[in-house]
């Protein structure tokens, strides 16, 4: 059903971009792409990039789809991952360059979403365990096209080792085992989990840089997505934001004093972050100490770990699919909502 809804949505969107005489050509082109999706999925891309702010982290992790390890100089971490190659070779299915451009851009963004999600699984876990605010937009980006066959992981290892040293005899301590648990538990392919960690890690970076008010706003956004998750996945649907937050946190087993702190966060966000403060606008850091804000960070970290485990136990978006064609057919509308322009165009155009 998802892929049929996606086709309908994409064609409806094309009607706002093309004259009526070209609507049928767009629809035919999109159908050809989707009818040949198994052929498109015969190739995958290997992506390798450096992680900023990762110096002195001696992490060695390897799974079916991802590798994390220091570079040869050991001055930063590199990450390598396997992603679908959905945007390659689509021109032969499309009527003309303009239609090809729109269709291929959607599939480019969708492939990028998969790669970023896999990277977020790792950098979010590093943030949780090591408290390090890492970004994947560094200085190095390598993409290599390879066949989607049994040698794909070996190809990833080969390409990765051209820049990095994989320690195959690395001995894990308790901290590293904890890190691995969270890398393998976090599923950023789920847009709720992706958005939760995006906003939480942004809050961490802002707070580290001294932007406390902006950090508060990002923390509140984090909880807002948690509340959206609870509404859709946990059946908690209260009328007011405050009640939704209260019921969600209580259902997750958050202690009462912690719930009260996060209800206060919403007020802080409204007074200082989302709107110009009518008083004490110079003195946020005097009114609220760094220690008080750090307590809020710790409570929210507990909340997002609880949500991570809830998603793991009630998984809807498969994390490591055997067939990307089947995965896409099931999650096409999720990708449409996450990566395409339709929603933002309705709001700001």
What is the rounded Rg? Answer: 22 Å
The spatial strand order of the largest sheet comes to: 2-3-4-1-5
The tally of helices reads 14
Order of helices and strands: HHHEEEEHEHHHHHHHHHH
Q: Please indicate the percent range of residues in DSSP E strands (runs of 2 or more).
A: 5-15%
**Any idea what the shape is?**
globular
Uncertain parts: none
Mean pLDDT: 91
Helix percent reads 55-70%
Main sheet record: 5 strands, antiparallel
Annotation, overall tally of beta strands: 5
- N-to-C CA distance: 29 Å
Structural class: alpha+beta
Q: What is shown here, in short?
A:
The relative contact order is 0.12. The protein is of the alpha+beta class and 349 residues long.
Question: What does the model show?
Answer:
The chain is α+β, with helices and mostly antiparallel strands and 349 residues long. 59% of the residues lie in helices and 9% in strands. It has 14 helices and five strands. The chain has a five-stranded antiparallel sheet with strand order 2-3-4-1-5, sandwiched between helices. A hairpin with a 6-residue loop joins strand 3 (66-70) and strand 4. Helix 8 (212-233) crosses helix 9 (241-251). The two termini are 29 Å apart. The model has no long low-confidence stretch (mean pLDDT 91).
Give the tags.
349 residues, alpha+beta, 14 helices, 9% strand
Topology, element by element:
Elements: H1 2-15, H2 23-35, H3 37-40, E1 43-51, E2 61-62, E3 66-70, E4 77-84, H4 97-130, E5 141-147, H5 152-160, H6 174-185, H7 191-208, H8 212-233, H9 241-251, H10 256-273, H11 284-287, H12 290-313, H13 324-339, H14 342-348
Antiparallel strand pairs: 1-4, 1-5, 2-3, 3-4
Helix pairs in contact: 1-2, 1-13, 4-6, 4-7, 4-13, 7-8, 7-12, 8-9, 8-10, 8-12, 9-10
């Amino acid at each position: 059903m998802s892929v049929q809804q996606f086709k309908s949505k994409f064609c409806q969107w094309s009607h706002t971009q093309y004259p009526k005489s070209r609507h049928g050509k767009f629809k035919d082109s999109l159908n050809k792409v989707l009818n040949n999706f198994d052929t498109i999925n015969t190739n995958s891309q290997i992506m390798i990039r450096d992680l900023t702010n990762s110096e002195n982290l001696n992490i060695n992790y390897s799974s079916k789809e991802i590798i994390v390890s220091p570079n040869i100089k050991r001055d930063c971490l590199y990450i390598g991952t396997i992603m679908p190659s959905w945007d390659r070779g689509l021109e032969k299915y499309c009527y003309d360059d303009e239609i090809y451009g729109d269709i291929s851009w959607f599939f480019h963004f969708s492939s990028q979403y998969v790669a970023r999600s896999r990277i977020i699984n790792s950098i979010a876990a590093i943030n949780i365990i090591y408290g390090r605010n890492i970004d994947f937009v560094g200085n190095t980006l390598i993409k290599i096209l390879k066949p989607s066959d049994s040698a794909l992981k070996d190809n990833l290892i080969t390409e990765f080792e051209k820049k990095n040293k994989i320690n195959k005899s690395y001995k894990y301590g308790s901290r590293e085992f904890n890190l691995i648990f969270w890398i393998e538990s976090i599923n950023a392919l789920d847009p709720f989990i992706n958005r939760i960690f995006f906003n939480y890690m942004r809050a961490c970076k802002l707070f580290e840089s001294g932007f406390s008010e902006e950090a508060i706003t990002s923390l509140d956004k984090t909880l807002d997505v948690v509340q959206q998750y609870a509404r859709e996945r946990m059946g908690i649907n209260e009328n007011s934001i405050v009640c939704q937050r209260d019921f969600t946190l209580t259902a997750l087993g958050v202690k009462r004093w912690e719930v009260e702190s996060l209800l206060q966060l919403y007020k802080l966000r409204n007074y200082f972050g989302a709107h110009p403060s009518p008083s004490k606008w110079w003195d946020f850091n005097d009114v609220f100490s760094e220690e008080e804000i750090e307590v809020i960070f710790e409570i929210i970290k507990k909340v997002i770990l609880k949500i991570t485990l809830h998603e793991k136990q009630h998984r809807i978006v498969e994390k490591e699919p055997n067939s990307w064609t089947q995965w896409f057919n099931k999650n096409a509308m999720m990708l449409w909502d996450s990566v395409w322009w339709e929603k933002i165009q309705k709001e700001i155009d």
